[in-house]
Amino acid sequence: MKISELATKSQINAKTIRYYEQVGLLSAPQRASNGYRHYQPGDVDTLIFIRRCRELNIPLDDIKRLVEVQADPNASCAVVDKIIAEQLAQVQRAQRELALLEQSLQTLASCSGEQVDQCTILHKLKAP
Amino acid sequence: MKISELATKSQINAKTIRYYEQVGLLSAPQRASNGYRHYQPGDVDTLIFIRRCRELNIPLDDIKRLVEVQADPNASCAVVDKIIAEQLAQVQRAQRELALLEQSLQTLASCSGEQVDQCTILHKLKAP
DNA sequence: TATTGACCTTCCAGTCGCTGTAACCTTTAG
DNA sequence: CTAAAGGTTACAGCGACTGGAAGGTCAATA
Q1: Can you give the residue ranges of the HTH merR-type domain (chains A, B) (predicted)?
Q2: Most CB atoms closer than 10 Å: which of A42, A112, A120, B82?
Q3: How many angstroms separate the CA atoms of B66 and B84, rounded?
Q4: Residue B1's pLDDT band (cuts 50, 70, 90)
Q5: Do B101 and A81 touch (CB under 8 A)?
């Protein structure tokens, strides 16, 4: 199939698919005589897998390793475990940071329409 | 004062200060005869203000508007209000997304050391 | 047959907020 | 005199795309 069909089936932008090939996440497909990329049905599965990983915010480098590990049936899945655990830890870290951020923003409250020299938000931003 | 003194006092990297000038967040300072940037004491306050905003994850473009608004005492602080409210909304949105992400990652659980063809994580990633 | 329009190709630039590096000049201390 | 520390510019890279330009290819229609 051509790239747009793969894009539709995998729900990944054709441009992004080319990008994945460029950075080595996706292996280069065969080319037709006109230079068009020609993909196999299995590529749909690979891309859907990649998309699910991206939805979990897993970095492309890690996804690359996950794809490689799948190609080697003798590999230990400790690698997989580690990547997911680290991703989880990172998400939890980000959550804690955002919670603090939210608190700080909320203490600024709103100052509803006065002039800037009396703006309570700006006041607090200058000397918190 | 020279840039490194400003950097120390404002707790912002000298490189970052030059970058802020480059993108128009900070106005260009006077130059000494040797070409060195020469800053006024007030610049410390401006940069501290900028740093506080950045700690709240406020984008540079928005900070730019906050700085401009402060220079104009007749401006309404509705602008300020809006920027902070949007920032808060965005942080809350990000938090909700991360919470979903965390859930998804946790359902993957760990598969502790089997071989990849039986890896429960990879299984779930292929068909969630 | 000519041409339109959809699709494909490559390459380059931009996003955001810095940070690293290189190459060079000036000042200060020993 | 020399070396270290600090200043200057310009350019590249990060991550994960996305947009655009400029051009080749293909199928259908006037």
Answers
A1: 1-69
A2: A120
A3: 10
A4: very high
A5: no
A/B interface, count of CB pairs below 8 Å: 139
SS (H, E, C) A40-103: CHHHHHHHHHHHHHHHCCCCHHHHHHHHHHHHCCCCECHHHHHHHHHHHHHHHHHHHHHHHHHH
Q: Which residues of B touch A46 (CB under 8 A)?
A: none
Contact A36, A28 (CB under 8 A): no
The pairing of beta strand A30-31 with beta strand A37-38? antiparallel
Chosen from A47, A68, A79, A84 to mutate, greatest number of chain B CBs within 10 A: A84
Q: What is the DSSP letter of B27?
A: P
For B76, the 3-state DSSP assignment is: strand
